[in-house]
Amino acid sequence: MPDRSPSPHFATTRWSIVARAGAGAAPERGAALAELCELYWYPVYAFARRRGADPTDAEDHVQAFFADLLERGDIARADRERGRFRSFLLAAFNNFESKAREREGALKRGGGQRAVSLDGAEAERRLAEIGSDAEDPERLFLRTWALTLLEVVVERLGREYEDSGRGDLFAALRPTLVGDGVDGGLAAVAEALGSTEGAVKVAAHRLRQRFAALLRREVGETLVDPDEVEDEVRGLFEALA
Amino acid sequence: MQMPVHCPRCGAHLPARGALAGLCPACVLRQGAIALADPLVADDMASHDPSTDPPIDLAEVRRDFPQLEIIELIGRGGMGLVYRARQRRIDRPVALKLLSPEAAADPAFAERFLTEARALARLQHPNVVTVHDFGELGGRYFLLMEYVEGCSLRRLLDERAIDPQRALALVPAICAGLEYAHGQGVVHRDIKPENILVQPDGHVVIVDFGLARMVGSAGDDLRLTRASQIMGTPQYMAPEQIHRPLEVDHRADVYALGVVLYEMLTGEVPRGRYAAPSERVDVDPRLDEVVHRSLQGEPRDRFQSAAEFAAAIEATRSAPTVPAPARRVVRAPGRGFRLSFVNSNQYGGLWNLEGTISLDEDGLVIDHRPQGCPPFYVPTTRTLRIPFDEIVSIELRPKWFGRSRLDLRVRHLTTLDGFPQQHPGTVRIDFKRADGEHAAELVAAVGKALEGHSG
Description:
Number of domains of chain A: 1
GO molecular function, one term (chain B): ATP binding
Order of helices and strands of chain B: HHEEEHHEEEHHEEHHHHHHEEEEEEEH
Number of strands of chain A: 0
Organism (chain B): Engelhardtia mirabilis
Structural class of chain A: mainly alpha
Number of helices of chain A: 13
Domain Protein kinase (chain B): 68-322
Largest interface: A-B, 47 and 48 residues
Radius of gyration of chain A: 20 Å
Radius of gyration of chain B: 25 Å
CATH superfamily of the largest domain in chain B: Transferase(Phosphotransferase) domain 1
Shape of chain B: elongated
Binding site for ATP (chain B): 97
Oligomer: heterodimer
Largest sheet of chain B: 7 strands, antiparallel
Number of helices of chain B: 13
Helix content of chain B: 25-40%
Shape of chain A: elongated
Strand order of the largest sheet of chain B: 12-11-10-9-15-14-13
InterPro entries (chain B): Kinase-like_dom_sf, Prot_kinase_dom, Protein_kinase_ATP_BS, Ser/Thr_kinase_AS
CATH class of the largest domain in chain B: Mainly Alpha
C-alpha cells in the first residue's frame, strides 16, 4: 500500500485546529477560527440577506454572530464533529438566529461589534451583481462560499506572482485560468512579454498547476480531513455550475 | 471596450470586480479541478519544472562517458536529456538518455530503476527500442539505447504528415511492439506521439518503455508526486492511471493508443464528449467503434490486448463495409448518443450521458456513462436494464436537423445506485440523424417484442 499519511502541510488545517479537541492551545484555536471567519463572512451575510434581513440587520446579525462565535472560542462537541467549516458555519448561524429570536431585542442594533471586517456596502454590491433573487438561502450560501474561496485562491496566486516579481506575467496569463486561449492568442502574450510562445504556454500551464495547488490547500484549510478535498471541490463545482 | 457579462464557454455570469473580475468562476474551478486531478500537481508549492534545468555541460557528459563519442543533444523532456552518440569501440550509433537528477533524488528510485531497466534490456523486438546498457554514473542514471533514425510521430502530426491511411498503417506496428512487451510483462504507461518514432521507410519504434514507471513512482500516492511531476502527458493517460494507479495494467496502453489513433485521425486528442472520428473527418465509420472501444473508461470494456486492437484495425482496412448481420441484438442508435433522464435525480443534470442502447431477450439495455465531467468524477459505465414489461411506450421523434429523439416512457425509473426513484419517468435519447435507421429498427423491434409480451 502506498503511504497514505497526510503530508505535513495538511496535518493541521485551520479548521482541524479549531474543530479537533486538543489539537492546539486555545489561543491557537482562536486565531485559526478568526482567520477563517475573516475570509468567509460574506456567504453568511448573503445567507442572512436572502433569508429576509435588510442590509443593516444582516450586517448587525452577522457581526454579532461572529463576535459571539469568536468570544466563545470553544466549539461545541456536536459541532466539532462536522468535517467542514462551511457546514459548521451555516448550522451555527442558524442556531444563533433562532436563539436571537427567542431573546428578541437582545441583539443590540448597531452595537458596534466588529468581529470581522465586514463591508456592508461592498457585500451589497456583490450580491446585486450575482443576481441572487431566485435562489434559496442555502444554495446562495454555497454559491457565495464557492465564489469567496475562489477569490481567496486567485488573489493569493496573484500575490505570490507579484511577490516574486512576476506580476506582469500573472496579469498577462490570468485569462488562461479558465483554459487556454486568450484574446489575440498566446503568441501575442509572448510578444508583449518578449518571450516565445512555447515558453508562455509552459508558463500558463504552470500557472494553472499553481492555482490547483493553492486551491487544494485552501479547500483543505476548511476541512478536517484533507482526503475530502476532491469531494469538496466537486460540491463547490456543483454550486457554481 | 466593455467587459463581457457572460462566460463565452458556459454562459455563467462573470464577476465584474474582485479577484475574479472577468473570469468565469465555474470555468476557473473546472480548470482547477482538472489540474488537481492531474498527478503532476503536487501540493508542495515548490513544484519544479525539470525542463528549466540548465542543460548539462556537454564536456561533463563527455568526461563521464569516455567510451562514447557524444555528438549532440537531441532531446530534452520531462524524463531527462537525450544525446546522440557513438560507441567508439564498435562504431555503433547510440542514444544516451540521462535521467533527470530530480528522479534520482527519490530514495526508492535506484531499486525501481534497476528492476525496470533490466526488464527493458530483455526486450528484443523490431518495434521496441533496444536498450544496450544502463546504470548510474556521477549521480546520474543513464540508459544507453539503440539510436533510431527518423522523427517522432508528434513531429509528423505537427507537420500534418499523417493522413488516415498512414495512421492505419502505423497502428498495427505499434500494437505489435506493445503486444510483445506486454507479453514480457512490461507496460509502457506513457504511450503518446512523442514516444513513437517513425523511420523514413515508415518503420515504427516505440521508445521510453516503462520510463514513466521508473521515474514516475506509479503506484505511489499521487500526492507524493515530486517524482511523478515528470510523468507523461495526462491527455493520453487512462483514467485508472490517475485514479487507481495500483490497478494499471497493459490495457492502459490500449487506452493511450486509442487517444493517439484519435489524434492521428482528427488532429486533436479526444476530450470530454468527443465527436466520433467519422463525424469529423472522412474515415470509415467502423473506426469510430474501434476508437470508442479503446477509450472506454473501464479497462474491461476496452480491447483486452494490443493484438485485439490491431485486429480491429486490420478488419477495417481489409473488409469492405458490410451490413451488420441480422441478430437479436439491435445496436442503435450506436455510439455517441446523448441520454437524459427526465424525472430523475441522476447526476443532477450536470453531465451529458453517452452510451449505447441495445435489445436483448428481456428488454432494453442502456449502457451509459457521463461525459465532459471533471476527471475526478471517475466516469463509470452504468447499465440500465429496462425489461419489456416496464416499458410504457417508445416513440421516435425524427428531426430535419439537429439531433433526433427517442422518448422511452417507463413505469419505474431507477437510475442512481442506492438512490432508487420509483416512479414513472422518461428516458430521453438524442441521437444523430445518421443513426435514424438504427433507431427506427430498434423501435420496431421493441414494438414487436411488446406485442409478443402482451400476447
